[in-house]
Amino acid sequence: MKAPAYIQPLETAFIAHANPVSAIQMQKYMKDKFAFYGINSPLRKEIYKAHKNQYGLLPEAQTTDIVRWCWEAPEREYQYFAMEFLGKKQEKVYQKMIALYEYMITCKSWWDTVDYIAANLVGSYFKQYPESIESLTERWLNSGNIWLQRTCLLFQLKYKSETNTKLLESCINKLLHANEFFIRKAIGWALREYSKTDAEYVVRFVKTHVLSGLSEKEALKWLRNNGVLN
Fold it and tell me: What pLDDT was estimated at residue 196?
């Protein structure tokens, strides 16, 4: 599968900087779900910077095709590149982009991509198109797909005081009895992040809801680590 012209210089750089030893370690860390070139994050960012300086961000007319090529490529670094370069174009995105984000969430799904997509891409998208939130989150919550469900819990991670607590609570209540680790962890993470904005809300929420041990521990971790809660 030949790389798009925009990706070919990136492919050359990835191959030139491949580290087989690191690749094995990265693959093991990701439970052997993906292949890697073995390029660590600082070096990837250097490669990204050089690519951006010479070739620019994702060309608008080819964005979907390029992202899909990256998502089908075996090496995980291409998926990281696609989502992170999409993240650089979040000032204004077209409404139809949500279909691409959903594809990225549901294909080659794992926490290393889904969490970035949720907090950076979907979170930004919903700020631009708030009228889409209710219908999409309802569909995702009822989809049976744990990664779409996790996205519903995490897309507000960066919202701080703009967090819609009613929606967050609704999403948590819908998934409260899930036995899935990634859902329980996300419930706690969403509450922990919001505790930095409204500690009282989170403490009250934990007291009035029967959370899993993991969710409760994660929810209160920041408050306890920072001496807000004993």
Answer: 98
pLDDT bucket at 1, cuts 50 / 70 / 90 = confident
Q: Do 101 and 125 contact (CB within 8 A), yes or no?
A: yes
Tokens 């370069």 — which residue? 85
* Cα–Cα distance list, 146 to 37, 87, 90, 180 (Å): 28, 23, 25, 8
Mean of all residue pLDDT scores within the chain: 96
**Tens-place pLDDT, residues 87-96:** 998 777 889 9
Place of tokens 């209710």: 134
Name 69's Cβ contacts closer than 8 Å, sequence gap at least 6: 1, 3, 4, 7, 78
Residues 6 or more apart whose CB falls under 8 angstroms from that of 80 comprise: 44, 112, 113
User: Within its chain, how far is the Cα of 113 from the centroid?
Assistant: 5
Q: Tell me the C-alpha distance between 147 and 223, whole Å.
A: 27
Instruction: Output the six-digit token pair for 83.
Output: 């989502």
- Please give the distance of CA 179 from its chain centroid, rounded to a whole number: 21
Residue with tokens 């989150």: 137
Give the pLDDT of residue 89: 82
Q: Tell me the backbone φ, ψ of residue 170, rounded to 5 degrees.
A: -65, -40
